[in-house]
Amino acid sequence: MASLPPRPTRLQRAWAAVLLALLMPALPALLGGCGSRVLLVDQGPQAYYQTAFPVRDTSRELERTFRSLHRVVYTAEYETFYFTPDAGVMESDLEDPAVLERAVEQFTELDSKAGTAVVVARAEAAMALVTNDHVVHFPPVRILHLDDDALRLPRGQRRVASVSIRRGEWGVLADNPELGTFAVLARDPVTDLAILEVSLPEWVPPTAFPRLGLPSGDPGRLSWGSFVYVLGYPSGYAMVTRAIVSDPDRDLRGGFLTDGLWNEGISGGVLLAVRGDTGALEWVGVARAGAGTREVRLQPGGFDFLEGDEGVLYEGPIFAESTLRIQYGITLSVSMTLIRSFLDEHRTLLQRRGHDLRRY
Q: Distance (Å, rounded) from C-alpha 283 to C-alpha 57?
């Protein structure tokens, strides 16, 4: 039976360690093309929220998030009364309901708008959602003045061309109309937030219509260039897009701008930031609206422009018309800081109705 080789002495082991330390720098050259080199780069401190496109797959989290998002359609019914210029109806005259009898034409019309809402609480028989106030708001009265009066006279002296009076309003979740109409529990036009409640019939399973499962984030820790996902229902389509944050914490309440290109229906959609340390998604706000400015333009009155009329001299009346010019790529958001404050303000009301808001 062969004997085992003798164990190296302490001195031999020490010399072996010294020799290995001397050879380590030369190993790449000794190994030639068979070796590979690893370059370590100091990337510096990681931002609280990522400023680059996420490298981790987030598709499942985004899909789960959409289960808590719903398309809101809000409708108002208006009764409209038209007056002739000779009727001489002034805005102050509208305080007397009898003035409506002087209308020469009367009809009823419907006006609708759409947006996105997110489930924040789920009770056994109802769920609570958050959206923008402007999505579920119509003015009680609309007044249209005669064009010539609008040009020549101050507001208090203008004659009324028509008045539309709101006779009713209601809203539904367009993706689940079988649930019926919802109620607006609370609203704040200043922060542009509203809380909706939808009653759930007994046949709805308890796992349906889950509340948003993502944690609420800290929009005050967004930075220039932070990457955010935007999820909602622009033009009625369930879509996810992305945007880059600018002017973070612009109002000391977590407010920020993004370069997202919003379309009608995205209002109320959620904005999700990506944590820099874990890659987890956090809810940091809701989409609000695109920036815009009012412009006054001179328009010809009663002139139907047809092809070939470019060289025709127009000699009719000219009227001033106000139009909204959208500034694409400059979009506004409501921060999670304001959303939490809004929910706190109405927490007692929601708790009395069985809604648990401890997550927020």
A: 17
